[in-house]
Amino acid sequence: MKKYFKYIIFALIAVFVVGTFVFLYQKTRPQEVRYQNLDVNISDIRRTSVVTGKIAPRNEVNIKPQINGIIAELYKEAGQTVEKGEVIAKLNVIPEMSSLSNAQSRVRLAEINLKQAKTDLDREKELYSKKLVSAEEYDKVLQAYNQAKEERAAAQDVLEVIRDGVSSSNAKSSSTLVRSTISGLILDIPVKVGNSVIQANTMNDGTTVATVANMNDLIFDGQIDETEVGMLSEGMNVVITIGALQNYSFEAVLEYISPKAVEKNGANQFQIKAAVKPQEGSTIRSGYSANAEIVLQQADAVVSIPESALEFKGDSTFVYVLKEDGSYEKTAIETGVSDGVQIEVKSGIDTSVKLRGPKIINEK
User: Fold this and answer.
1) What is the mean pLDDT of each run of 10 residues along the chain (364 residues)?
2) At residue 11, what are phi and psi to the nearest 5 degrees?
3) What's the CA gap between 263 and 257, in Å, rounded?
4) Within a 10 A sphere around the Cβ of 138, how many other Cβ atoms?
């Protein structure tokens, strides 16, 4: 029994060795190489570039107060329209103590001078009525009194402006009222009633009370790579697609190409702007992300082939043309515009031939 068992083991080992040999032999057999044949067609070819960017108003203005203060009232909200000169907010003034003190001191001094000028005028008037002084001397005293009166009024106006933000003599141009400098749509009001605000000066930019823009004049603002910017020119048509608005696109006109590159993620990018022409009745919001498709090169009704049929050697381009006997002949061609899939053929072949394409590998 043991003798038969030994033979069985040897037989299994032999079968395994033979099977492995056969398997490896099948894997190492040469494979038949065949090629897919490609047609030469007449088609339109466009090389395009898609630029990412955003939609923004051409003119977006930050409205800031003319004085330091606290927001007392807000008359507008974001999303509302506003006309130039219309009041957006009202402030309560926070006077600077040194300026307030100086203004009060000036008023007191002006009152003293006015009181003295009034006394001098009354005395001079009595003397003039008795013909004891000349008309010239009386006119000088009267002029001094009028000047003192004006100085008193001016000092009072300064005090009221510093203390209240508005003078009684010029209430219509109150600096406590924050007015829009343009007509448009209010995009944002970043302050609330009770917030402190400061005016713009050489030390700071001031507090923005509202942001206003003309939403009827929009632009696409994006950046394009330096490898493609040389193909652009102002006046080119652009198709804008907004991601937030499905199946919605509209035309724009390229109007600005930056003369200077900006480095971004290790690549040089050039800013471009296009004037947006949205469809009537559409609502486009500031800051929408958008894509701009720009046609860089275009060739209509030209001989075209798939780029997979090309072979390059040095500065020359070749294809393999199918012959009647089934073999292929290497042929030089001149190419033109490419869209990344199809490429224009300017000379070398026509639509009557077929070309060798990618390999098709089958096992025997």
Assistant:
1) 62 68 61 77 90 91 88 92 92 74 84 88 83 84 88 81 64 73 93 89 87 91 91 90 82 92 88 84 83 89 90 88 86 89 90 84 53
2) -65, -40
3) 16
4) 16
Tell me the C-alpha distance between 2 and 48, whole Å. 80
Pairing relation of β-strands 342-347 and 354-362? Answer: unpaired
119 SS3 class: helix
Half-sphere exposure of 28 (CA within 13 A, CB side): 6
Matching residue, tokens 């005395």? 123
- Roughly what angle, to the nearest 10 degrees, separates helices 135-164 and 97-129? 160
The answer to whether residues 196 and 91 touch, using CB atoms and an 8 Å cutoff, is no
What is the model's pTM?
0.62
Backbone angles phi, psi at 335, to 5 degrees: -105, 165
Q: Please state, in angstroms and as integers, the Cα–Cα distance from residue 291 to each residue in 53, 107, 131, 166, following that order.
A: 6, 63, 91, 50
H helix and E strand count, the chain: 4, 21
Q: How far apart are CA 117 and CA 124, in angstroms?
A: 10
Residue 73, strand partner residues: 90
